[in-house]
Specification:
Elements lengths: L8 E7 L2 E10 L4 E11 L6 H16 L7 H10 L1
Antiparallel strand pairs: 1-2, 2-3
Length: about 80
């Protein structure tokens, strides 16, 4: 992504004429991916600036006050203990 959203990434899928976007933040140091938001749109259309601003606001909230996310290691450890 570009501009203020440059640290975010889109996971894309297309079903028929509908495009699905999952906006994620890779936290490589912590070995996790944070799902920021998901959007759907018709093929050959753009998301509005307001929608991108909403995604940016969500990402800023996570950066300012990150909740305790689970990492891959947390899931592996839980599986080993089961």
């Amino acid at each position: 992504m570009k501009g203020d959203l440059a640290d975010l990434h889109e996971v894309r899928d297309k079903q028929g004429q509908t495009l699905y976007r999952l906006i994620v933040l890779w936290q490589r140091k912590e070995r996790r991916v944070v799902i920021i938001d998901g959007r759907a749109k018709a093929n050959r259309t753009k998301l509005s600036d307001a929608e991108y601003e909403a995604v940016q606001d969500l990402a800023a909230k996570i950066a300012a006050d990150a909740p305790p996310f689970a990492s891959v290691d947390d899931f592996i450890q839980a599986d080993l203990e089961a």
